[in-house]
Amino acid sequence: MVRNENEAYETFIKGIWRDNPVFVQVLGMCPMLAVTNSAINAVAMGGATLFVLVGSSFLVASFKQWIPKQVRISGFIIIIATFVTVADYTLLALVPKVHKELGAFIPLIVANCMILGRQEAFASRNTVRLAVMDALGTSGGFMVALFSLGAIREILGNGSLFGVDLFGEHFEPWVIMILPPGGFLTLGLILLFFNWVTQQKDKFIEQVAEAERVATDG
Amino acid sequence: MDNLVWIFISALLVNNFVLAYFLGLCPFLGVSNSLETSFRLGLATIFVLLITALCSWFLNTYVLIYAPYLRLISFIVVIASTVQFIEMLIKKISPALFRAMGIFLPLITTNCAILGLAIFATNRGYGLVEGIVFALGAGIGFTLALLLLAGLREESELSDIPKLIEGIAMNLIIAGILSMAFMGFAGLFSAA
Question: Which of B17, B45, B72 to mutate to test binding with chain A, by most A CBs within 10 Å of its CB?
């Protein structure tokens, strides 16, 4: 049981950081860039994705014995599309304003390769518990990415966060950041930063290993 | 007539699917390493988009008025199976054409540009002719963006780039600059 706990926890953390769907695996780019022009849109999108991913992972993992191998992809897609329809109508009922701004991108969650990827690679061959943990971790990682991109773009492009003014009236908004090119540029720079952190970490590990070798040799 | 021209140019340049709507980014970033493959992928995409426009028009007119909540599911299922069917047909009729774009067909079906086109066309209430013109514009625009990025990437392979920026990060920044250039087209219509 203890081992089980650890495994579930590790699956969760892995999705958020080491296998972050956006920064590391570069999946789910389309919604990622399209809706992140403000923090609130990013959070709504993240929430919808979380719901769809957890729901479909749960169903896929529970029904995996009964889904024939040959038609599994179509089966997954139908399950995902069902949850997306639910999310679409729920958002329309609860927050019509956000739903209008996200527009076509809620239905487009179906085509998010990250979700189908998790079903195929994880949920269809693991227990329900692990599948849900994995879904939570992956969508958590996706949300972190969405939120950081949305926040950066809103702060620079509009001088506000969640609609609250941050800098006062002397701030000249950097309009390009909330327009499409800003999305590409910001994500490019964030990925660059991630590469740099990974490189520094590798260097550090190498140095430690080197130092240990010297210590044991001497 | 004016309206059709506007739909075409708008989908092609002003609201380019890749550079303004961020649709179809996976193939845009993944497959754009050579001009040749990009061109074939572009052709296949235009083809699938046209089929999508037909299918979604048919579904919208004859089926979905009775059950609007099935829109998403039926779009996906019908488009995917039609594409698969046509893929088999092409394989039988013209092996040369199949070799040129066959392998890409099933992959493209899961591309968000396809579903995006169907949803946009529905939301804007396009008819059959408008839908097809929209699909053509979007498809050619996608191909154009893909070819531009592929050309730049082929050039960049010959130059000396810091290791840190190689790969996705650089492609995204190139795409950002392309997207900025395409924003220049936005003035095309407001002036007229």
Answer: B72
